[in-house]
């Protein structure tokens, strides 16, 4: 299905380069302290945090009303960047726990989160490693493991030039360009009708010279040392010239795959997707032009030309993402919230997915915030399954105190039985 163009479009160029990859290993371990009898005291009107499972060398990951232990590992990177991290030689101990609310909030893997920080001009990687996982409602506690990570070199800060000292000629410096915008990732199509509706004489276009430039719409990296294109990249496009006259007319069209303002990452270690929206724009922008040299095209192969396949794909992951940036509570910063439940205490979201594989597993993740002077909770129900209760902390309402209890992240996995 083709998306509708408004007035702006991508295909990223891939470059094969030789890169030195370095593998490192760090042993980690946890010493456990267990108290399954802890519970909320109803006589205390304040936020209460429970630690039924705790390791003495761990850091706190708070998801009210529980504290989940994580192991922090700090690694000096220098001019390296992390490309992969995983756990091997894992040793665990099994525990049962009757409080299923606690168990359901735990992933089925020892999740590894990785961030980069700078301290006094030196770059470090921080690994946050979950020490608890659940398998069929049984808790497994991490006793020991080997953290494996791989790095590769990236340009050092000393080798970087200031922007004003980087001379280059932009592709936009000569010729005529038209700016297009898209709101989501997908395939897009340019037709003679679309161009004429925007005041462009399609019959004047020589199809073999048609070009599209753009780098995708996701946010630029905040660290200037990160690799990124210095100029707009030409996208590979597919051109249908029905009568072969090299003119965009009749049923001719141009199509390509364009990335919108969002970015979807897949984490193979915990089998989850991460959706990153754009903090500063709702659109991604691309530029079209024609004339001069021939444009970049999608390569094609004739059917039966010696190609083969290894796997037959008969199902795929369907991703639904919902986010409304409606309110910034403190009128500052980049944390926005939406779907307020103040006047109405119920909110329903309906989605129809055709062709669901029966009894397939679905993952649900939501981020919530609660602002209340008293202990409150949110009930989440999916497809009439057992409600998931999420307890929030309290706020004092004081100027220098937290405005909201959160963000609280809830991860669920359940079985789909129907659309």
Brief sketch in words of this structure:
The protein has 419 residues and is mainly β. It has helices spanning 100-104, 192-197, and strands at 2-3, 21-29, 32-34, 53-55, 59-63, 66-76, 80-95, 112-119, 122-130, 132-135, 138-153, 178-182, 186-190, 211-213, 238-240, 253-258, 263-267, 272-276, 284-289, 360-370, 376-380, 388-392, 405-416.
Verbal overview:
The chain has 419 residues and is mostly beta strands. It is 3% helix and 37% strand. The protein has helices at 100-104, 192-197, and strands at residues 2-3, 21-29, 32-34, 53-55, 59-63, 66-76, 80-95, 112-119, 122-130, 132-135, 138-153, 178-182, 186-190, 211-213, 238-240, 253-258, 263-267, 272-276, 284-289, 360-370, 376-380, 388-392, 405-416. Strands 1-13-16-15 form a four-stranded mixed beta sheet. Strands 2, 7, 10 and 11 form a four-stranded antiparallel beta sheet that branches. A four-stranded antiparallel beta sheet has the order 5-6-9-8, with no helix packed on it. A hairpin with a 7-residue loop joins β21 (376-380) and β22 (388-392). The longest helix is centred in the middle third of the chain and has 6 residues, at 192-197. The chain is globular and about 80 Å long. The protein starts with a strand and ends with a strand.
SSE layout and pairings?
Elements: E1 2-3, E2 21-29, E3 32-34, E4 53-55, E5 59-63, E6 66-76, E7 80-95, H1 100-104, E8 112-119, E9 122-130, E10 132-135, E11 138-153, E12 178-182, E13 186-190, H2 192-197, E14 211-213, E15 238-240, E16 253-258, E17 263-267, E18 272-276, E19 284-289, E20 360-370, E21 376-380, E22 388-392, E23 405-416
Parallel strand pairs: 1-13
Antiparallel strand pairs: 2-11, 3-4, 5-6, 6-9, 7-11, 8-9, 10-11, 12-19, 13-16, 14-19, 15-16, 17-18, 20-23, 21-22
């Amino acid at each position: 299905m083709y998306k509708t163009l408004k007035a702006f479009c991508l295909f990223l160029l891939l470059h094969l380069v030789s890169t030195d990859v370095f593998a490192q290993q760090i042993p980690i371990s946890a010493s456990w302290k267990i108290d399954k009898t802890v519970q909320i005291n109803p006589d205390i009107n304040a936020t209460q945090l429970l630690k039924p499972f705790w390791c003495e060398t761990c850091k706190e990951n708070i998801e009210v009303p529980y504290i989940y232990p994580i192991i922090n590992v700090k690694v000096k990177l220098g001019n390296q960047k992390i490309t992969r991290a995983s756990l091997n030689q894992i040793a665990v101990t099994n525990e049962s726990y009757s409080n299923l609310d606690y168990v359901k909030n735990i992933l089925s893997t020892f999740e590894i989160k990785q961030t980069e920080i700078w301290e006094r001009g030196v770059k470090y990687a921080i690994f946050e490693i979950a020490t608890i996982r659940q398998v069929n409602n049984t808790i497994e506690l991490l006793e020991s493991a080997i953290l494996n990570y791989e790095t590769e070199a990236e340009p050092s800060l000393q080798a970087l030039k200031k922007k004003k000292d980087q001379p280059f000629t932009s592709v936009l410096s000569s010729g005529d360009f038209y700016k297009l915008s898209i709101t989501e990732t997908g395939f897009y199509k340019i037709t003679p009708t679309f161009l004429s509706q925007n005041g462009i004489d399609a019959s004047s276009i020589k199809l073999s010279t048609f070009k599209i430039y753009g780098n995708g719409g996701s946010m630029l990296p905040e660290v200037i040392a990160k690799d990124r294109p210095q100029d707009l990249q030409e996208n590979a496009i597919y051109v249908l010239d029905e009568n072969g006259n090299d003119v965009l007319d009749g049923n001719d069209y141009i199509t390509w795959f364009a990335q919108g303002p969002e970015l979807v990452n897949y984490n193979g270690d915990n089998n989850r997707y991460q959706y990153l929206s754009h903090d500063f724009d709702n659109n991604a922008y691309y530029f079209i032009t024609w004339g001069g040299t021939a444009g970049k095209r999608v390569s094609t192969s004739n059917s039966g030309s010696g190609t083969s396949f290894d796997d037959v794909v008969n199902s795929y992951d369907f991703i639904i993402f919902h986010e409304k940036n409606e309110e910034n509570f403190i009128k500052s910063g980049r944390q926005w919230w939406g779907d307020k439940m103040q006047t109405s205490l119920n909110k329903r979201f309906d989605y129809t997915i055709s062709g669901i594989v029966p009894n397939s597993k679905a993952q649900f993740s939501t981020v919530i915030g609660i602002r209340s002077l008293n202990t409150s909770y949110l009930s989440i129900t999916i497809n009439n399954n057992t409600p998931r209760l999420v307890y929030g902390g309290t706020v004092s309402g004081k100027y220098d105190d937290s405005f909201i209890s959160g963000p609280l992240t809830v991860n669920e996995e359940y079985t789909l039985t129907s659309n």
